[in-house]
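Input/output pair, single chain:
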Amino acid sequence: MKLKKLVLTGAAGRLGSYLREPLSKLCDELVSTDINDVGNLYEGETFIKADLANFDDMMGVIEGAEMVVHMGAIVDEAPFEELLGPNFVGSYNVWEAAHKHGVRRVIYGSSIHAVGMYPKNEFINTEVAHRPDTFYGLAKCFTEDLGRMYWEKRGLESVHMRILSAAQVNNPRALGSWLSYDDLIQLVTRCIDTPVTGFAVIYGVSNNDRAPVDNAKAAFLGYRPKDNAEDFAADVLAEADVLDPHDPGHMCHGGPFASVELGNSGLAGMNVIDDRKKS
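Output:
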């Protein structure tokens, strides 16, 4: 199945940089959009600078699309007022524009932070109640509920990928939470080419021995992750300090986001390396 037009929001971000090329091969026209430029374009790709918080921008970008891969957002905890436009209003704008233009499906980059306050020793599935660790996580809860409502009231399909951590494995938490870029690409591809999805929430995580979530609900997509963070375990554990079991940042699914004060950066406590792909 090859789509005529596919839209990718957040195309200038780290994860967007790895999705652009493979998504361009799934459609005749890939429209990549962001408030920042993406650099050189792939064959069949066009770029439109647009603001998620501007409804007219989203209407223009999404017109004619069959599906939208919505990865755009502020990707860290911040004061609510800063997140409101891109992370909350932006999601509404994407779904409403998709509905008005007859888009078939939205694939959304949700996050473990929607349920980040659950203890990590609870092997949670996607049916547990929302338990956000930050305003950032709250925006993910909002968008998951938005997607369910648009499916039940308006018939717009959506798949919400609760990504755990798609970054280099350089800390003990990542031994369970890692989503490799190859597995991310596979997951998004399966979200696109699965014939029928309705509304679905699944976890974005690789085939890690220490994965702390039950991802059985992703099986219907045909998602079969191949990478395993255990390959890095010996080196990571040899360099790690003893963790405090009373620190929510160590004990909760949300990691450092679970321990920061609301509005303060969660990424500041993580060693995330900006290894975005250059086009």
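The beta strands are 3-9, 27-34, 45-49, 67-70, 105-111, 157-163, 199-204. The chain has eight helices and seven strands.
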